[in-house]
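Supplementary Methods S3. Complex input for the 2NL-bound model.
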Amino acid sequence: MSDYQAMQAALMSDIAAASDLDALEALRVAALGKAGSITALLKSLGGMTPDERQAQGPQIHALREAVTAALADRKTALDAAALDVRLAAEAIDMTLPADAAPRGSVHPVSQVMDELAEIFADMGFAVATGPEIEDDWRNFTALNIPETHPARAMHDTFYFPDTDAEGRAMLLRTHTSPVQIRTMMAQEPPIRIIAPGRVYRSDSDATHTPMFHQVEGLVIDRGIHIGHLKWTLETFLKAYFERDDIVLRLRPSYFPFTEPSAEVDVGYKQEKGRRIVGGHGDDDGHAWMELLGSGMVNRRVIANCGLDPDEWQGFAFGVGVDRLAMLKYGMDDLRAFFDGDLRWLAHYGFGALSVPTLSGGISA
Ligand code: 2NL
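Predicted complex, serialized as structure tokens:
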């Protein structure tokens, strides 16, 4: 047996005996690494005569190839064995029940917005939306709100450093009316829309949050009068509170954008510390509660939007969504709406697949 054959036999038996990947790697380095025994043989070829090289070269290369192949085979075998060990140790019981996925719920404000869209859709109203960052003209001027109006003060409205083309500060809309201004500018009457969304006022106490939700409604058509306004609000409130005994009281008021204007009160009674909407406010045990603002759209507002107020009339109203939600679903603290407390949401939120329906009442 030549020296090379003896060396190969020794290496082969070492490789076969290597019990793990570390031992095998150590053998590879000892044979084929920079200072390895076979590497030394390969280097020695450089110092041989051509005849010697011709005799020795093939044997040394054959040795290198045999050892390389043996190392690879042994590595494959050890890898497979290691995988078998891991698979045995990490066995997963696929029949065990999966972890419960946390399930979110529908926020009462979202729920009420959906109910409002559904009720008004039945009366032919489309839903209109617009940006929360508005310009001064759409939020104030077009609505006949004078320069001196307190709502325009720095301490009532959130202004941005950025200005519009007229050099007036951009702002966070204080109501969704600008959406209705946009609609009147963009499409021909007849118009029947509701504009739900977030609005912002610099106000913060137990009953006011700097951000709240509003729905405004707007109808523009020929021959619209205050009877249409009252019927629409009455039909809406009966559907929303799911009661036929809703009584409205229209109380004269003032808004720059409507003339005449009316606050809309509803009769209610107090029951177990909760306000139950329904009944005549002057009846025993009952009282009136202000719920909406409304009126006939001011001729100036119609004209500001490029329409002829002698041809087109309309009514409009505004209502706080958060308060509508509190009244129907019994929450008593407005601030809790926006705290993001998951316990509150678990209590007052609605399952995505079991939301209250208007026809079916509150489902299980
Ligand atoms: C309130 C008052 C109201 C309107 C909003 C409106 C919008 C246009 C034209 C005329 Cl574009 N009016 N909106 C009208 C009356 C009252 O809201 O107290 N909201 C809670």
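The mean pLDDT is 93. DSSP finds eleven helices and eleven strands in the chain.
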